[in-house]
Design goal:
Layout: E1 11-13, H1 20-35, E2 40-45, H2 51-63, E3 68-72, H3 92-102, E4 106-111, H4 122-135, E5 139-144, H5 148-160, E6 166-171, H6 177-187, H7 193-197, H8 206-226, E7 233-234, H9 240-249
Parallel strand pairs: 1-2, 2-3, 3-4, 4-5, 5-6, 6-7
Length: 262
Amino acid sequence: MRLARYTPEFMSMTYGAGGAAQERTRVVASALQARVATPIAAHLTCVGAARREVDAVAEALWQDGIRSIVALRGDVPDGGAYIPHDEGYRDAAELVAGLQQAHDFEISVAAYPEPHPDSRGEKEDLAYLRRKWEAGATRALTQFFFEPEPFLRLRDRVAAAGIGIDLVPGILPVGTMAQTRKFATQCGTTLPPWLESRFVGLDKDPVTTGMVSTALAASLCFELQREGVADFHFYTLNRAEPSIALCALLGRVPVAVEEAHA
């Protein structure tokens, strides 16, 4: 509810890697959608699941009032190589197509300012983004980055290729450097040397870390705004305060929010 006061276009909810976690995520997303007017975008992945299982989750989300999906291939839980399920969607592009056949979902997908760890480079990433757009995705949320140039280069490549998807930069306020290093290693994001230097000596000082992190994330947003970027996707990591602070710094004014009624 605290984030809903800033009237975002949607609030996304991540998806468990398998089994009961997927069902809990659906239940929580549906319960939240019943409480707030802000659209809830539920993450949906195809890793480790048969097509009928993924379709069943999508159908349940639609019946519960969820109209927005973040469609992702998903990461392998044990960190191994991705192998499509024998009876499942091969990748996010196929998942997008399947969702579009089922219902009129608004579908967001992932995009990568720096090459995805499993790709052979920027050309392959761009071709894959095109497939997702042509399958019916309307918005691409990027992986996080810490300097504007990777995003701006991606925006130029997408425009030059004639891919008409809305490209929204992913902004990650640093929680801890240890956590951020782990995330960056997993997704192939470059950590500029200057970033780590800003947090030296702050390992046991979460308050100051939060202040520095918010200032750096806001500075990145300001640089992107100067380049014509209007929308941002904040990675909250279950912490409302950094996103609220960024909204305030960016001039987003909170409003009174009434709970929705199912």
